[in-house]
Amino acid sequence: MPRKNRKPAGQPKPAAPAAEPETKGPGGRRTWWVAGGIAALGLYLACARGDLWLDEIWSLEWARGIVSPSDLIAKYRHDNNHVLNTAWLWLAGPSAPPWLYRLPAALSGTAALMLLAALASRIQRGAGIFAWVLGFFSFPFVLYFSEARGYAMAAACGTAAAWLLLRQNFRPSWLSVAGFSILSIVGLLSHSTFVLVLLALGIWTSWASWSGRVGLVAARLAMWFGFPLVAAVSWYFMFLKGMEIGGGPEFSIAVVLGHFFGHGLGLPITWPWSVIAIALGVALLAAGWHFTPDRQHHLRALLCGVIIAPVLVLLATRPTFLYFRYFFVLLPFIYLFAAVAMAGIWKMAWPSGRVAVVSVLALYVLSQAMAVGNLVRFGRGQYSDALLVIASSPDADKSLTSDHDFRNGMLVGFLQRRDARFESIRYMAGAPQPAKWHLLHTQDPLPSEIPTEQAVGSATYRLTGIFPYGGVSGWHWILYRRD
Predict the structure, then answer these.
(1) Cβ atoms within 10 A of the Cβ of 375, count?
(2) Distance between CA 423 and CA 419 in Å, rounded?
(3) Residue 70: phi, psi to the nearest 5?
């Protein structure tokens, strides 16, 4: 009997599938993948040492008051309560070393960086190594991937969700949809700004699924985003609605954009550098749009989503307080398109283009390495060192005042509870009489010359020590002693 499904004579062989970009990680080599992950984790753990700063201590103080898991949401409806991070602080206990409080951020940050590199590698050959370099040396990455906050976990969930969508080619299966839903819930519980990622990915999915049939787009959106949407709405009513804002300086959108692109690209955030940073960021995104491979043109919708999502959220919420870290979850996608642009220019094999890529990347690494170096050296503040100067002084009077009782008082009280060496220090909140010691704090860059004398009321204080910090999270302490 004749064979079934026998190939007819003379039928041409099917064309070989097009070569896929490397998917094994940066450079397409497993050794790069492993080495890159180990290097990133080592850097983040190195920056996870040192004193905690105000926001971390604030969350830890709340964790001390938690009796049951429900307290995580019901008791502290505050923007400084990043729920999953606070839950980890509660489990770790009040006496754990700082690096243990920051360990989930370091692990999540390493995962986010390597997922970013894998995502870039899947889009265009060679883009993975550029994405890894941009992410590894990024000061915002190192800062928030080594801090006991929720930003690192949210960023990891965002890159993982994007990688899952691209890997599945937007065709949902029950397993992939379940994974996407879990990532969305974890991302929202890590930090509420994860909703920006959901909006951007929703725009991307809509465009990639469009084939002239509205029903297909609606079905895919319902499959992928139905449960995350229910979770986001529920989270709004359970936690976000009526949430207390901790406050702080008010920045305009233009200033926040300058901070976002300035820190992200390694440029100063002061005028006129902030404007240059915004212009350079826009140019990088435009280059990423241009060099996106034709076979994956739908990625341009992801770029549109990254731009449209924060605009929609700002129009809907009109927040009073705005900081560049509120958009941190979108920074991996900025690096993604920058890496795609660099790989596209490199692929064209223009000598001048390759020189330009190497030059820009070298300047970026140099500027970011200086900021990261300060973070490794100074951490988020040298508060213990300053208190040790007071505690070890021969003065019997170890009374202390400062220029901000809430911020400095919380730090001093926290360190006193953890270190017996500081028990002799007596912090005087709102004291009318002059103390022996006085602290000034500032987040601004230290001036070249710091006054050696400081008048506080009727008392005169002389400069005793300067205790800098690595930038953004924390502040400088300037310690004065009364004659």
Answers:
(1) 23
(2) 7
(3) -65, -25
